[in-house]
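Example record

The entry below shows one chain as it appears in the dataset: sequence first, then C-alpha cells.
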Amino acid sequence: MEMDNDSEKLANSLETIENNSMDNNSEILGNSVEPIENSYNKTEIFPSVVDRYYTKRYVLDVGHKFGDYCILFHSNRICVVTLAPSHPIRSMRKNIESLDFQISTSIDRLDNRVSGKSKRGAQRLDVNSALCFAKCADGEIHKICAGIPGKLVEINENLPENPSLLVECPETEGFVAIVLPSIPTSERFKAELMNYEQYLEAVAKREGSCGKEERKQGGIDEL
C-alpha cells in the first residue's frame, strides 16, 4: 500500500508540472513571470560571429580577372582570407574536384609551420601570392591568391579533404587561410580596401563593361 501511495504522489506531481508548463505565466516568489520565449523579439535578426568580430573588406581582380576576395580583419591584426561572392567558384557554385597547395617545386603551403607570437618560420605572402590551385569539374583551374601581404599563419586544414567548403560556407568553415600582416600594412589595407557598398558598386561597374559570359562568371546573383 505504501508503494501505491508513493506512485500516486509521483503521478500527481507530474500532472502538476505538466499543467504548470501549459500556463502562459509562472510565479516566482508570488510574482507573475512570463515565459522566457516571450521576453525577446523572435523576428530580430542577430549578427553572425563574423559580423560581430570581424571587419569585412573586399578586393577585386587579384592575380587575374574575377580573382575577388573578402578579407576579414580582426582587431588582433589576424586576417582571414575568403572568396568573395563574385568569385567564379562562389557565384557559379563550381564543383571543386581538388585543391593543390604545391605552389612550386620548393613551396607547399601545407608545409607551413610557425612558432611564437611573431609567427617565426611562416611563409611570406604578397597580394598576388598563390595559396592554392582549385581544379574544377568543368576543367578550369583557379588560382586562389592571398589578397593581402603578410605571414601565412595557417591554411584551412579542412579544405584538402572537403574543398566544397569553399562554396558551401566560405566565410566560416570554408575560409582559405589566415594571414598576419604587419601593423602598418593591416591599417593601410583596412583603410584602402573596399567596404561592402563600395564592393557592390565596383562589381556592378565591372559587369557593365563585361561581355555576357564574363558577367555570368563575375556576378553576385546569390546576394
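Notes for this example: The mean pLDDT is 85. The CA atoms of residues 27 and 168 lie 46 Å apart.
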